[in-house]
Amino acid sequence: MRLNRFNPNSIRVEDQRGGRFPGGGGGKVGCGTIIIAIIAALVFGVDPAQMIGALDGGQQPGITQSGQAGRSTEESCAVNQYSQESCAVLASLNETWQPEFEKAGIRFGQPKLVFYGGRGRSGCGAAQSAMGPFYCPADQGIYIDTSFYDTMAQRMGAGGDFARYYVMAHEYGHHIQYLTGIAGQVRSAQQQNPRGANQLQVRMELQADCYAGVWAGKNRHLIEAGDMEEGLRAAASIGDDTLQRNAGQRVRPESFTHGSSAQRMEALKIGMQSGDDTRCDAYFDMR
User: Environment class of residue 221 by beta-carbon count within 10 Å: exposed (0-12), middle (13-18) or buried (19+)?
Assistant: First the structure.
């Protein structure tokens, strides 16, 4: 996918790389809906219960335009190829989704992109590499240790630039859910019906996949040959059933939190082919 040049001053970026953080962190680990929480559990051996916190609102701190190590946004985005891609994708996502919110009469606010290395801090508690990229609603931040992309390519067979863009776009999908209020409604429903919490979470993740596809569909003039295949391959590689099989476990649909490979591929495909965010409503209509 050919990403356009972007203005670093138009995006919110925080850089925690190089910062020192106490071991173990504190508070809730991995608050919000973490796209790769189950990956960390199966690939890295991390307990997903330590990662998936409450998806509720919180105070929104002020915009941070420079990093922990004193880097400017432009410098943070230029640290490596993955950083540059992430910043470019964030800019494209903002440019794509803000007009949609304005047309719908819903207040829009940009999320911030937070780079960290190894470990860091989020508004939801500790951030650790094994958690994979995640969205924290408390500070509306998308948290990424870019070394994850090497792991995704080498251990999971999900390489390629569009596979990486899909991860960012999925996390942005959770920001959309936060802004529209669907995230809060889902959390309330999960608290009222704990037995159905996993099913509700699966629908949440599939809708975020659909939103990721919509972003690509709305920018199909930038799509290159092979992009859709890369995206679908990435979606397949992080399906709960595939992850459980690869970990030598029995496939247990009742334990799914993100959806099967087939479901994730279908959600992404619906968004990409339609470019219509209303098609994603089918995954979660809380009215």
Answer: exposed
CA atoms of 205 and 173, how far apart (whole Å):
9
Q: Residue 226 and residue 228: Cα distance in Å, rounded?
A: 6
Which residue type, as a one-letter code, is found at position 178?
Y
Q: What element of type H or E holds 236?
A: helix 227-237
Each of the 287 residues of the chain gets a pLDDT tens digit; together they read 999 889 999 999 999 998 765 544 333 333 333 334 444 433 333 333 334 333 333 333 333 334 445 789 999 999 999 999 999 999 999 999 999 999 999 999 999 999 999 989 999 999 988 888 999 999 999 999 999 999 889 888 888 999 999 999 999 999 999 999 999 999 999 999 999 999 999 999 999 999 999 999 999 999 999 999 999 999 998 888 888 898 899 999 998 989 999 999 999 999 999 999 999 999 876 44
Q: Which residues pair with 12 in a beta bridge?
A: 112
Residues with Cβ < 8 Å from 220, sequence gap 6 or more?
272, 275
Please say whether the beta carbons of 3 and 88 come within 8 A: yes
| 259/200 Cα distance (integer angstroms) | 10
In the chain, where are the structural domains located?
8-282
CA 49-260-34 angle, to 5 degrees, is 35
CA dist list (Å): 133 to 119, 265, 282:
12, 19, 25
How are the residues of the chain apportioned to helix, strand and coil, as percentages rounded to the nearest 5? 55, 10, 35
